[in-house]
Specification:
Its main location: membrane. The protein has 335 residues and is an alpha/beta fold. It contains 11 helices and 8 strands. Helices cover 47% and strands 17% of the residues. Helix 3 links the parallel strand 2 and strand 3. The structure holds uridine-5'-diphosphate and magnesium ion. Uridine-5'-diphosphate binds next to strand 1 and helix 4.
Length: 335
Amino acid sequence: MQLMPPLIRPEHIQEKLHIDLSVIVPVYNEQKVIRTFHHALCKVIAQMHNERIEVIYINDGSSDKSWEMIQALTCPFANIVRLNLSRNFGKEAAMTAGIDHANGKATVLLDADLQDPPELLPDMLKVLRNGYDVVNMKRRQRFGESFFKKFCAKQYYRLFKSLSDGQIETGVGDFRMLSERIVNHIKKMPERSRYMKGLMSWPGFKQTTLHFDRPQRVAGLSKWSFLQLIGLALSGITAFSVKPLKLATFAGALLSIFAFIYAIWVFTKTMLFGEAVAGYPTLLLIQLFLGGVQLIAIGIVGEYVGRIFLEAKARPVYLLMDSESSVANSHSRVN
Ligand code: UDP
Ligand code: MG
């Protein structure tokens, strides 16, 4: 029998095996900010000179020059991995692509608009190394967001927390640092509707929370319309809780009891006073009310059936069109 010669690993694969921190950056139409962001990030990375860092940019089907700009970005102190998705799959899918390609002992998710300050990375890493698996970054202040958006976000977090038995923390977005074992668990989660805030909280382990003031976006506009935010909110709730279904059952039961009591009252009244055909408006109101409640209940069931349909098709969460990487100059010097 002939023995196979040992495989010689290319240098960049060896580099990948010793990464201390993976920085994941989803990018969608960010040509106005991506360079500024990268310079700010690279400056912070330069100060963390003892760490081996990889930055994973995921171009989420941008229609502007973001991908060309990402291809041109370099940082002498970090490996740069560039992933180009085949179309816009949404931020959750882009972050999933990043997590799938992360090799670090720690992984952090950053928005490309500098709303998640890279300057906080060294502190987050220090806290994570004190024995934590997740460092959540809670927003103390949210600058540059309307009162309405902040109000809706607060109410949504509250609702989600009560529906999902407190699995996610109020005011914590996607800006978190995760340990390798949490990332490995997330990589293995098979679901397609990926509500990352939920997925990152679900494994539990040792979590801690730091506070920060969330600055305004440096340039460009938020990519989320109000309707998209509602979609994300619904997807989060249906992916993490079946309580709305129970709520529909509960409302049905409550209304049946109410209808039964009302029937007894109408019957007694007619028997005692012999009332004739009056009550047309009451009838109409009750009809409309019940019709509304039934439609809401069907809608809730429909949301879940829709999710089952999407999960059953088992299509990939994202498709990669291109990927490129470059290795840091400094990594060969650092142990
Ligand atoms: N993003 C993405 N795909 C999308 C929408 C957004 O990758 O379909 C990225 C975007 O480029 C940014 C991050 O997700 O890096 C956060 O987006 P944005 O700033 O628009 O969200 P906001 O801060 O307003 O919640
Ligand atoms: Mg933003």
